[in-house]
Design a protein that fits this description.
By secondary structure, the protein is α/β, with parallel strands linked by helices. The protein has 12 helices and 11 strands. It is 38% helix and 22% strand. The strands form 3 sheets. A 5-stranded mixed β-sheet has the order 9-8-10-7-11, sandwiched between helices. A 3-stranded parallel β-sheet has the order 5-1-6, with helices on both faces. It has a 3-stranded antiparallel β-sheet with strand order 2-3-4.
Length: 304
């Protein structure tokens, strides 16, 4: 899959490429545990409640009229802080706000470190996790995951770099902590380097994706790998200082994270996504952010 996230609205002012990623990193670190309500775009705001879907939401969940959502707000264009340093915006925010609207609820986004979101759902701190989580077997053991989007992995490096993702032995590579790129992808590449008797990949792991991007721009690291829309967006927003490297691979669905014992809530969310697909809101929101190439071509599912 994918993609040029070209038409996003100018929510973050750019004094320069490094300024963008560094300021986003600073906001992300300062706001790790603060409550930052998602803006929800015009398409999300115009969604009307569906009574039949709202009736599927467990009474204890809908009692306060909102869903508390954990998210790592450093992962543009999926979820990141707006220019005010407080409001979480992005295509994930708009889309899940619309899903919540279908269920007669409001989504309230709270920023957290990426690898704290699923534990937060498990503990009950968050009712849903929305943070570009690739669905994999390990995560399905921890929670229910409702598919809603598809993305692959992409590499990016400084413009003019000759780095080869298939032979990155001896290179310094940036990645966000807890992502499938760190836990699943790089260990396999690392083993291949060892088996070939080559120098190991020097992995720099960052809590915020914006810090990983900044490290590549500054020259601290030779390359980074992340979800395909994130790398494409970074290239777009850093005024050509970065280039995409190699092809997109390992495409897989993203999933909303719901506590394992909340089957009814997961089913309501799944049906909310399906309703947005049917009425066209789903495609409208993805197109607004330029990520419509990642639209699911199958119905959303629980732990697919």
């Amino acid at each position: 899959m994918f993609l040029t996230p070209s038409r996003r609205r100018a929510a973050v002012g750019l004094a320069g490429a490094a300024a963008l990623v560094l300021s986003m990193a600073a906001c992300g670190e300062k706001k790790d545990e603060s409550s930052t309500p998602g803006a929800g775009g015009s398409a999300a705001a115009s969604v009307s409640s569906d009574t039949a879907l709202a009736d599927k939401v467990p009474a204890a969940i809908k009692a306060d009229g909102k869903l508390i959502v954990g998210t790592d707000s450093t992962y543009a264009p999926s979820e990141f802080l707006d220019a005010d340093g407080k409001t979480v915006v992005g295509f994930d925010v708009d889309l899940f706000s619309a899903v919540a609207g279908k269920l007669g609820l409001k989504a309230e986004f709270q920023s957290a470190k990426f690898d704290d979101v699923i534990p937060g759902v498990q503990s009950g701190k968050y009712e849903v996790g929305v943070s570009s989580f690739t669905i994999n077997d390990e995560r399905k053991k921890q929670a229910l995951m409702v598919s809603y989007f598809s993305a692959g992995t992409q590499w990016a490096a400084k413009k003019g770099s000759s780095i080869n993702p298939d032979d990155a032995c001896g290179k310094k590579v940036a990645v966000q902590t807890g992502t499938v790129q760190e836990t699943d992808d790089l260990p396999v590449r690392q083993q291949k380097c060892k088996d070939a008797g080559k120098p190991e990949i020097k992995v720099d792991s960052y809590q915020a994706q914006s810090d990983a991007t900044a490290a590549v721009i500054s020259g601290k690291d030779d390359a980074m790998l992340a979800d395909s829309p994130v790398c494409a967006y970074a290239v777009k927003q850093t005024s050509g200082q970065l280039d995409l490297v190699g092809k997109i691979y390992d495409s897989a669905p993203y999933g909303y994270v719901v506590k394992s014992d909340q089957q009814a809530l997961a089913e309501a969310i799944r049906d909310g996504v399906k309703a947005l697909m049917a009425d066209g809101t789903y495609k409208t929101i993805l197109a607004k952010w330029g990520v419509d190439a990642g639209a699911l071509n199958t119905d959303p599912a629980i732990n697919p």
